[in-house]
Batch of 2 targets.
Target 1
Amino acid sequence: MSDVRDLSTPCAVLDLDVMQANIDRVADHATRLDVHLRPHLKTPKSLPVAERLLARQARGATVSTLLEAEYFADGGVRDLLYANPLVPAKVERFCALNDGAGEVIGITDSAAAAQALAERAASLGRVLPMLVEIDVDGYRAGVRPGSEEFEAMVGTLQASPALELRGIMSYAGVSYHTPPDDRAALAERHRKALVDCASALEARGLACPIRSFGSTPAFMRAASMKGITEVRGGIYVFQDLFQAGIEACNQSDIALTVATTVIGVQPSHNRVIVDAGGLALSKDRSTQGHPFDCRFGWVCDDTGAVLPDVWVEVVHQEMGVITHRLDAPLDFERLKIGTVLRVQPNHADMTAAAYEGYHLVRGGQVEGFWPRINGW
Amino acid sequence: MSDVRDLSTPCAVLDLDVMQANIDRVADHATRLDVHLRPHLKTPKSLPVAERLLARQARGATVSTLLEAEYFADGGVRDLLYANPLVPAKVERFCALNDGAGEVIGITDSAAAAQALAERAASLGRVLPMLVEIDVDGYRAGVRPGSEEFEAMVGTLQASPALELRGIMSYAGVSYHTPPDDRAALAERHRKALVDCASALEARGLACPIRSFGSTPAFMRAASMKGITEVRGGIYVFQDLFQAGIEACNQSDIALTVATTVIGVQPSHNRVIVDAGGLALSKDRSTQGHPFDCRFGWVCDDTGAVLPDVWVEVVHQEMGVITHRLDAPLDFERLKIGTVLRVQPNHADMTAAAYEGYHLVRGGQVEGFWPRINGW
């Protein structure tokens, strides 16, 4: 065991107790609503983290890239949903995954893509297990049930033995722009859209066993998941300042921080320079314009205790500039050359991607290291 | 040889001819001004790119992390400047580098840091070759010549046999906020500050053989580098939309792009979804608020030809949303499912860091792959 202050900085630090509480909070809600989770592993991209997620009320997992699918399948995760639209150029790699012990399901949200996939799969002599992504509120992807596009896509699915419909999904990402008290209604809108669409498809003879709901902030306000078979969510395992800003968590729920060292002290400018810059923190500015604007991250001491109103105001590639949000004098006694600090990130997904893994802490002590993967 | 359209996306694509023209342009200017370059390798982080940079009017190289120093030293680069303030916790790793065939010089910009470094080096029985960073315009780091802090630091350097002064440096990073026509005066201010400071130090018996000037946009407008021994610059090797926006290059000088595939088509929303999102492009928004605001990147076809006014307006983790800047209808005939596009980045340093290397292209043909390193 070593101390956070002995780590080579910058590096990613993961508080295990905070993470477990995050996992349990969402799993408990899923248990209450009698629905399974299909955790989205794009946030941690780490097998040991996945194992903790999959141990609680989960059935299968979600990934955002084929590299993640390969990594988690190698690690023994047997039921994966690759939740980005599949395109013909990626079909062979997708099929190779399905030659293994587990299964990976793809998604599609357009008639043209479905047709192209069917042709590619047929030419390879393969059958692709697929979900259809439906559009409920015009957010990003998906096709609106009942639309001309939807009908064309369903026609392709019915006509193509190379595509096997496994069900439907939606993503309530608009929850990030929806006030907390309106998220229950948002969740209900998606739940109902999924259930109605599945019923309509089944009435036409298309089995629809999977009805997959996405977005944790919406799910955590949902009163019912009746008719939904699984909930996809990811960021909750680490949480971050954006999630705190939209009241999807408390700031104390943030499990991932970046350890950094003071490398410059400038009392005449009332600022401190640290060795975590844009590459170490990411340039994500999700909190920009929010009431809880955190610039490039909130500063904590080496134990994870927040230094009130101290933030990373500016980042250069390998330097962060720490100032006081209200221009009050910094406490330079606590910010000497060599002091190790921890920075809460705006967006854990983006920040974690700078690292090869997580230094695990419990109560300020480092207990080990878990690897993660990056790339495509 | 293969075609850009056959690459597995997202991936980084480097146009070799454009890159070489960027290298030559800066080297030619350095030759005219009779000064050497010390190229900053934090942008490419790739040995083959470094070799092209070092082949033209260069003497030594600059790095921003000790990992870069180790990588390039292993690759045979013999004279490195580690241009982030050195702190005691990194002294052992720094010294290990100096046990190799080459030399790495550190920097310091405070009396407290210099004192702590001197003590650490003395306890290890080592002598650290150091530059002092001077502050010319209060931009980020450095200490103002003649200030109390400067005098204390010089006193420490004179009194500490464990620190060996090699010279001074400054960074004219304020050039990024200085109109092009004012950059000649900025460069002259830094040149004069460096020369005056070096003279003052030498008058006190402190040899100051290195006088290192930084910032390419300022350098490229400079009329003289008299008395300067080296110029540090990095981003010019790849260029990016921010550099184009401040008129430090033309958009056609951008050598680094991200290849991406259309995975969704939504004519009813006049938008297209690609497989390059925040992780593939970075969340850098350097161009935000500029007259040349490029959102998350400018879209080109697979040959690198710009699609006028087509940009990546929004990014999610693994998806980019392409729209038309002026809301004119997109040409969906050129943006079908599976189409490979290339996106020019806001900030090449940040975008390149998502990748393990560069696919090399000349005239649309892929000629090979050069690796790069990431991390710390």
Target 2
Amino acid sequence: MTDLDDFTITIVGLGLMGGSLGGALRGQCRVVVGVARRPETVERALARGLIDRGTTDLADGVATADVVVLATPVRVILDLIPQIGPLLPEGCLLMDLGSTKTHVVRAMQRLPAHVQPLGGHPMCGKEVSGIAAADPALYRGCTFILSPLAHTSERAMALGQALARAAGAHPLVLDAGRQDFLVGTVSHLPYLLACALVSTADATTSADPAAWQIVASGFRDTSRVAGSDVTMMLDILMTNREDILKALEHFDAALHKLYHLVESSDEQNLRMTLDVIREKRREMFP
Amino acid sequence: MTDLDDFTITIVGLGLMGGSLGGALRGQCRVVVGVARRPETVERALARGLIDRGTTDLADGVATADVVVLATPVRVILDLIPQIGPLLPEGCLLMDLGSTKTHVVRAMQRLPAHVQPLGGHPMCGKEVSGIAAADPALYRGCTFILSPLAHTSERAMALGQALARAAGAHPLVLDAGRQDFLVGTVSHLPYLLACALVSTADATTSADPAAWQIVASGFRDTSRVAGSDVTMMLDILMTNREDILKALEHFDAALHKLYHLVESSDEQNLRMTLDVIREKRREMFP
């Protein structure tokens, strides 16, 4: 197994994801360098012990890095990739933490040959963003998707997996297109449903002051992800549009089926349908 | 404040809701009597210390009751109300725990004059059902909706509130129609969304073995209530049909709005819409 002991790891972007990763890796590698746009963010990351060293200068931050992790919203990652390529030392592994991978991997294909590229997507998060919410335990137990490119070396791949494991996550290798299709349904669709649910409650029941006294745990849970960072989600929606629209169309059909079963009071088929769904949910989360 | 010390409380139906209520009230009133259809259920409730005394005979169970709580699915409650009326002692308070109230309150209007009727709906639950899942802490901190009838006495109302508080819940008085409209959106709609989401994932991504390794907490939370007891949910859907269909129509419009914003890549309006929704969610759960 690859050991991180001797490596310098630079994290670009010290928000929830980047700050948490720094905190998780610090002490397991030679040094964790943090790069942020604002000096206050660097100071807070240092004060919280999430990084060993910090800078607002990208070139300085990556100059001696063995691994660079881009931890910004997806479209900032897409802007950073061509900028950062020429700044990276020979053999440096360039990873990212973006939630969509097709565009990222495409941008990584144009990196100079001395860089080892590897798409990454840890399946964890919170509805709070920024360094203040960073938590070194955030990655523990989550699946960390890795999307290699055709020319990603075995050594680079092993290093990416070691990094995921060092953060407490389980690496899972998935082609970028397949990952985008799957997360479109299991992650991006639930976000839009949560948003539409909040919007519905706001339009129909929020005029009644009793409404918010009775919101049950079902509503709280189903709407939770509607609190996610909007800039991050907007980037996701715009870079996984096709898969998300397809997932929405499937969902629409499933919901209309339920609507018609309720409307027609077709109890026998409604029970059968709900029984099958309940069983599926149990298979998914035994 | 009304004291339950001297009261005999009979709970009809010893599933998750009834068993948990028994466990919560036991020791705070003279005696908790449990009535179930099957002798095994009565035995389990006694063995778990959820009731003081149990029987499978409805007439015997309610003969000396000061309060009777119907804790079965809604349509069994509707069947029980006319049967149980003549069996109740003079002045007995008859409550229920059904999730929809319009039909229940209508059935309670036909009870004999010696009975004090009060609709009840505690906003708590789990996706597991039956006495095995009963938990005396289930009601703690939840809102317990009480829907009085025109002739419900102040004394009966105070007793209902005392019972809710003794279980650890916060009583909230709401007219039956208003409660059904509100829970249609904040409770029954999230159930159908969770079901349609599971159904979508099953239809689109479940063929890929990687799908279930990457289900993030967003999906788990948004789909949680799809595991709810089907008989209970079917009764709810059938007795709150109109309000649920209206909530579904509102949701459908909200989701289509989001669909079109994503489809047309109208980022400015999408961001504005998502920002408003995020703010609303924060107001709902500060």
